[in-house]
Amino acid sequence: MFVSDLSVEKWVGNQNQGTLIENPTWQQIESAISELNGNSQTLVTLGADEESYMSIGGGAGNYIVNVTFDGMTFYNLVDHSQPEKIEKLTIGGQLGNYSAKLCVDLQAALLVAKTFAQSGTLEESVNWEDLQSLTMVG
Questions:
Q1: Is residue 10's pLDDT more than 80?
Q2: In this predicted model, what pLDDT tens digit does every residue of 19-33 receive, in sequence order?
Q3: What is the mean pLDDT of the chain?
Q4: Rounded to whole angstroms, how far apart are CA atoms 61 and 44?
Q5: How far apart are the C-alpha atoms of 70 and 74, rounded to whole Å?
Q6: What is the number of alpha carbons within 13 Å of residue 85 lying toward its C-beta?
Q7: How many CA atoms lie within 13 A of 11 on its CB side?
Q8: Most buried of 51, 55, 67, 105 (most Cβ within 10 A)?
Q9: Residue 18: CB partners within 8 Å, gap ≥ 6?
Q10: Which has the higher per-residue pLDDT, 135 or 76?
């Protein structure tokens, strides 16, 4: 497996009481992503080394996924079928505004997480955009 650790945030009030799992199994990763609820559990990070990781944030049907392999260039999973609107999501314990095209369903989040966790690559059957090509929304 490409991924060497799994970080799971769990917010109790304003305190993160999350866990770090070394050498996670796919079942542990799948479970952590499935438990994201957009409230107390809002971010899962799959780490490979200091610079390569995937973050899956949100929950309750809306997930934001991004990946970096070098800590400099970030790729975001996008759904071009979404309308031009803003979604409010809590990620990493912080409420933020996100373009609806960045919001994907649980099935898509699990698909890309499995590919990244197992092979360290981007899933090719979905759309990715690097951060520079995304317009900032306020």
A1: yes
A2: 999 999 999 999 999
A3: 92
A4: 15
A5: 8
A6: 6
A7: 18
A8: 67
A9: 7, 8, 9, 10
A10: 76
Q: Nearest to residue 43, comparing CAs of 80, 68, 69, 11?
A: 11
How far is Cα 15 from Cα 103, in angstroms, rounded to an integer?
26
Residue 132 pLDDT: 64
Which ranges of 23-105 does DSSP label H, i.e. alpha helix? 26-34
Going by C-alpha positions, the residue among 27, 26, 22, 30 that lies closest to residue 6 is: 22
Residue closest to 64 by CA, chosen among 19, 104, 96: 104
- Helices 26-34 and 106-119 pack at an angle, to 10 degrees, of 150
Nearest alpha carbon to residue 128 among 59, 58, 54 = 54
Q: What is the pLDDT of residue 95?
A: 92
For the chain, what are the domain ranges?
Answer: 5-133
- Return d(Cα 31, Cα 36) in angstroms, integer: 9
pTM over 0.85: yes
Q: What average pLDDT score do residues 92-116 get? A: 96
Closest CA to 11 of 56, 54, 44, 34: 44
Q: Is the per-residue pLDDT at 68 higher than 60? A: yes
